């Protein structure tokens, strides 16, 4: 894969990380444990050597999902961040937590015995942009955009920005 600098973090910005080097073994895991950990149908992951990785803001919370694996996530917003085997020389990053997740394309799928049978039909489903559809949907999307508290896809000195909550 590509040797470079990757940054990422959780939705609220409480946990941020930096990976310098190569993200290896990018894949999509469909196993039931990753489905539960991600709260989704699959979990895209890639690993980075421990010496090439550091947390630059906050600390993740950890859940030991098995004797071998623990899962790192933000205790404030719940974003899944890491799949970690503490005795391994690498750490897996949840690719959706990267600031630019399009930078790393999966090269295989694992845990396919638990993959949703209907995934093969996804290309046939109708597609819309976020604010396409009804006027009500467009209005909701505008409200979300105007009140967005999601951390931006780059490092910040302070987050969230100071707000007048009165």
From TrEMBL:
<keyword id="KW-0862">Zinc</keyword>
<dbReference type="GO" id="GO:0046872">
    <property type="term" value="F:metal ion binding"/>
</dbReference>
<dbReference type="InterPro" id="IPR011057">
    <property type="entry name" value="Mss4-like_sf"/>
</dbReference>
<comment type="similarity">
    <text>Belongs to the Gfa family.</text>
</comment>
<dbReference type="GO" id="GO:0016846">
    <property type="term" value="F:carbon-sulfur lyase activity"/>
</dbReference>
<feature type="region of interest" description="Disordered">
    <location>
        <begin position="147"/>
        <end position="166"/>
    </location>
</feature>
<protein>
    <submittedName>
        <fullName>Aldehyde-activating protein</fullName>
    </submittedName>
</protein>
<dbReference type="InterPro" id="IPR006913">
    <property type="entry name" value="CENP-V/GFA"/>
</dbReference>
<keyword id="KW-0456">Lyase</keyword>
<keyword id="KW-0479">Metal-binding</keyword>
<dbReference type="Pfam" id="PF04828">
    <property type="entry name" value="GFA"/>
</dbReference>
<feature type="compositionally biased region" description="Basic and acidic residues">
    <location>
        <begin position="147"/>
        <end position="156"/>
    </location>
</feature>
């Amino acid at each position: 894969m590509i040797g470079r600098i990757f940054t990422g973090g959780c939705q609220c910005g409480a946990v941020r990380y930096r990976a310098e080097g190569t993200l290896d073994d990018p894949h999509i895991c469909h196993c039931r444990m990753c489905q539960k950990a991600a709260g989704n149908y699959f979990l895209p992951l890639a690993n980075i050597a421990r010496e090439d990785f550091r947390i630059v803001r906050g600390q993740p919370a950890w859940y030991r999902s098995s004797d071998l694996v623990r899962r790192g996530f933000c205790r404030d917003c719940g974003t899944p961040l890491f799949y970690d085997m503490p005795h391994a020389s690498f750490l897996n990053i949840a690719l959706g937590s990267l600031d630019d997740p399009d930078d790393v394309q999966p090269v295989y799928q694992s845990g396919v015995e638990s993959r949703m049978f209907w995934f093969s039909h996804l290309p046939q489903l109708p597609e819309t942009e976020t604010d396409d559809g009804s006027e009500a949907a467009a209005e909701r999307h505008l409200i979300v955009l105007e009140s967005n508290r999601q951390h931006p896809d780059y490092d910040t000195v302070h987050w969230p920005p100071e707000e007048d909550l009165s």
